[in-house]
Specification:
Number of strands: 14
Strand order of the largest sheet: 3-2-1-4-5-6-11
Strand content: 15-25%
CATH superfamily of the domain at 3-149 and 174-204 and 270-284: NAD(P)-binding Rossmann-like Domain
CATH architecture of the domain at 3-149 and 174-204 and 270-284: 3-Layer(aba) Sandwich
CATH class of the domain at 3-149 and 174-204 and 270-284: Alpha Beta
C-alpha cells in the first residue's frame, strides 16, 4: 500500500520518512519545493492550498498521515489557514480520491483551546476530522524532541550556557522522542478496532510527566552541565515574549501565543487517551534520548 504524507520536509515528517524506509513502506509526499530523490518516496510539488496537488497526492493511496501545520503564525488568520483550512483541504481531497483512512497529527494544546491561537486552531481541525466521515485517528503528541528538531534546540543551548529559563515550578509536561512518535503513526495506518475513531495522547511512558526543573536538569545532564533553572511566572513569560518580539522585530521564538500555553501547569498526556500497549509502547528512555539528541546537535554544528 502507498501512504500519502503531508509535512514530509518538517522535523516529524523527515523522521516519518526515515521510519517508512526502515519498514519498506512506500510513501507519496507533498512538498512546496522539489526534493532530492529518496528511496521509497515519490515527491510531489504542491501545498495544502493547492487542490490539484492534493488530488495527485491522494491518487491510489490507501491512507494519509496529515502532519503538516503551523506551530507559529503572525495572527489568528495564519493559524486558521495552515491548521484549519489546510486540514479541511486534506479531508476533501481524501474523500474525492476515495482514500478511507486518515491519521491526523494534532497537539496536546488542543485540549485547552482558550489558551492560544495555535491550540484553538488545532481543536477546530480535530472537529473537522471527527466530522469527516473518514476512518480517522487523532494523535496529540506532547513536547517532541529528537534529531533535526529546532523547537527545543534553544533549551539545549541555554543548558550549555548554564542558565535555563523555564515555566513555573509547579508545572508538568510529557515528552516523546520523534522516533517513538513516528513508529506510532505508522502502526496506526491500518486502523481497526480500538484505533478507529480514537484520540491518543502518547508519551515516553513516564507517569505524571516531567516537572520543569526535572526536564531542565535532564537536558543539562545531556549536554554535560548543571544549569541554574530560573522559573518564570505567566506574567514574566508574557513580558519576555513582548520584549523579545520588539528586540528581534518579531523573530523571537517565544511569542505571546506560545507564552499563553507554556504558562499552563498541566501538559501531561492523559491516561484516558493512552495508546493500547498491544499496539505500541515507547522504547526511547528520555534521558538517553536527550543525550543522543545533544550529540546529534553537536555533530550537526547546531550546539
Amino acid at each position: 500500500m502507498t501512504i500519502a504524507v503531508t509535512g514530509a520536509t518538517g522535523f516529524v515528517g523527515q523522521a516519518l520518512l526515515d521510519r517508512a524506509a526502515q519498514v519498506n513502506q512506500p510513501v507519496r509526499a507533498l512538498a512546496r519545493q522539489l526534493q532530492d530523490p529518496r528511496e521509497g518516496v515519490e515527491w510531489l510539488k504542491g501545498e495544502l492550498a493547492d487542490a490539484q496537488a492534493l488530488d495527485r497526492l491522494m491518487r491510489g493511496a490507501e491512507a494519509v498521515i496529515h502532519v503538516a501545520g503551523a506551530v507559529s503564525a503572525p495572527d489568528a488568520d495564519g493559524f486558521e489557514a495552515a491548521n484549519v483550512t489546510g486540514t479541511l483541504n486534506v479531508i476533501e481531497a481524501a474523500k474525492r480520491a476515495g482514500v478511507p483512512r486518515l491519521v491526523f497529527v494534532s497537539s496536546l494544546s488542543a485540549r485547552e483551546p482558550q489558551l492560544s491561537l495555535y491550540g484553538a486552531s488545532k481543536a477546530r481541525a480535530e472537529k473537522l476530522v471527527m466530522a469527516s466521515g473518514l476512518d480517522w485517528t487523532i494523535v496529540r503528541p506532547p513536547a517532541i524532541y529528537g534529531f533535526r528538531d529546532k523547537e527545543m534546540l534553544d533549551l539545549f543551548k541555554a543548558a550549555k550556557w548554564g542558565v535555563m529559563p523555564m515555566p513555573a515550578k509547579e508545572g508538568r509536561a510529557s515528552y516523546i522522542h520523534v522516533e517513538d512518535l513516528v513508529r506510532l503513526l505508522l502502526k496506526l495506518v491500518p486502523g481497526g478496532e480500538g484505533v478507529t475513531g480514537k484520540v491518543f495522547e502518547p508519551d515516553d511512558g513516564r507517569e505524571q510527566g516531567w516537572g520543569h526543573r526535572e526536564i531542565a536538569r535532564a537536558i543539562g545532564w545531556a549536554v554535560g552541565r548543571r544549569p541554574v533553572v530560573i522559573h518564570l511566572s505567566s506574567a514574566w513569560l508574557h513580558r519576555a515574549a513582548r520584549w523579545g518580539g520588539k528586540l528581534t522585530r518579531g523573530r523571537f521564538k517565544l511569542t505571546a501565543d506560545r507564552a499563553g500555553y507554556m504558562a499552563h501547569p498541566d501538559w501531561v498526556a492523559s491516561s484516558a487517551f493512552k495508546v493500547p500497549e498491544s499496539l505500541w509502547k515507547p522504547i526511547v528512555p528520555t534521558r538517553e534520548g536527550l543525550k543522543a539528541t545533544a550529540k546529534w546537535y553537536r555533530e550537526a554544528g547546531w550546539l
